[in-house]
Amino acid sequence: MKPLIYYAHSAQDELGNLLPYEHWQTLQSHLVNVGEIAAEFARVFGAQEVACQPFSRSCHCRSQNCKNACFRVGSKV
Fold it and tell me: From CA 70, how far away is CA 59, in angstroms rounded?
């Protein structure tokens, strides 16, 4: 059985027509991006790990910028 893929954002062409799924942003990719941005903003306060806590239950560390922060979602969300 193929794992389900969840999407965070769809994509459209210039005319507003939906593009195929391969152009959409997956939820996994979106959570990685949000976690990295949150950690970067929190770095000023030394709170990178706290900024990523909403993602920590389903993530694995992958960023060099934040050793203890979680950024990558596994195959199932």
Answer: 5
Rounded Cα gap, residues 26 and 32, in angstroms: 10
Q: Is the pLDDT of residue 6 over 80?
A: yes
What does the angle CA 52 – CA 57 – CA 61 come to, to the nearest 5 degrees? 60
**Is residue 19 scored above 60 in pLDDT?**
yes
Instruction: Tell me which DSSP letter residue 25 carries.
Output: E
CA distance 34 to 17: 26
Q: What is the pTM of this model?
A: 0.61
Amino acid at 1: M
Sign of CA dihedral 15, 23, 65, 47: positive
**Quick one: how far is CA 74 from the chain centroid?**
11
